[in-house]
Amino acid sequence: MSVLFSGTYTLPDPRDATKNYLKMKRLLHGCERYRQWNLERQFLDKKLVWKLGEFVDDEVERLLPECEKQGIAIEFRVYSDE
Q1: How far apart are CA 64 and CA 15, in angstroms?
Q2: What is the pLDDT of residue 3?
C-alpha cells in the first residue's frame, strides 16, 4: 500500500515566480494526482506558497533528486485528512 504525501512549495523570491512555475510544471508532469490547473491558478493569483496536491511515495522518491537538481525545495509531508 502506498503512502500519500502532500506537497507544498514556498516561493523564495517573487521575481522568480515565472521561472519556478515553468520548472514546477516540468517536474510534476505525469504525477498521478497532480492538477496543472491548480498550480496555474496559484501562480496567476501571485501566491507565495503553492499547494501542489497529493503524491504517492514512488513519486516523492523520484521528485526529490530532481528538485535538488533544479534548485527547487518542495516540502513533502505525510498526508493526513485530520
Answers
A1: 24
A2: 86
β partners of residue 53: 7
Residues pairing with 76 in the sheet:
7
3-state secondary structure 27-76: HHCCCCCCCHHHHHHHHHCCCCEEEEEEEEHHHHHHHHHHHHHHCCCEEE
Asked if 5 and 67 touch (Cβ cutoff 8 Å), the reply is no
Q: Which are the contacts of 38, defined by CB distance < 8 A and separation ≥ 6? A: 51, 52, 53
pLDDT(51) > 50:
yes
Average pLDDT over residues 39-53: 96
d(CA 72, CA 18): 13
Q: According to the model, what pLDDT value does residue 48 have?
A: 96
